[in-house]
């Protein structure tokens, strides 16, 4: 099995390895335990909430701006893909030479979700190795987006 959900209670602690994770707009550090490199890490909103280090996020945003300025990271403008009910999908991409990673954040803006009692925006982040192209992590994007913004 190549994909397994990891819970913060399954061995992740403050003594875990500091592993930078690239979001679509900046390197997003969270603390993760060592993982089997053959497995894709999947983190839900509650997992990210338990693991996130807000100070590290702010430092990462600053570093990302520096990397963009020096050309060692790229973050092109997203395309807009129309969906039903006036929804829009926005695939946001970025890559980082220093982190040897690439990322896609798929943001869905669904204005009619409000009338359904659902969030109007949803996002999922895919982190890939910049060396092998392997998908290393699938992250719920809600909290990551909120903190970065």
Topology overview:
Blueprint (H helix, E strand, L loop, with lengths): L2 E3 L11 E6 L4 E6 L7 E4 L1 H7 L2 H17 L2 E2 L6 E2 L5 E9 L4 E9 L11 E9 L5 E6 L1 H7 L1
Parallel strand pairs: 1-4, 4-10
Antiparallel strand pairs: 2-3, 5-7, 6-7, 7-8, 8-9, 9-10
Number of strands: 10
Helix and strand composition category:
alpha+beta
Distance between the termini: 35 Å
Give the biggest beta sheet. Answer: 8 strands, mixed
Low-confidence stretches: 1-33
Mean pLDDT: 79
Number of helices: 3
Radius of gyration in whole Å, from Cα? 16 Å
Percentage of residues assigned to helices? 10-25%
Which term fits the overall shape?
A: globular
How much strand content do the residues show? 35-45%
Along the chain, the helix and strand elements come as EEEEHHEEEEEEH
Key traits:
two-stranded antiparallel sheet; 3 helices; globular; eight-stranded mixed beta sheet; alpha+beta; about 150 residues
What does this structure look like?
The protein is α+β, with helices and mostly antiparallel strands and 149 residues long. It is 21% helix and 38% strand. It contains 3 helices and 10 strands; from the N terminus they run ββββααββββββα. Strands 1, 4, 5, 6, 7, 8, 9 and 10 form an 8-stranded mixed β-sheet that branches. A two-stranded antiparallel ribbon has the order 2-3. The longest helix has 17 residues, at 54-70.
A few lines on this structure:
The protein contains three helices and ten strands.
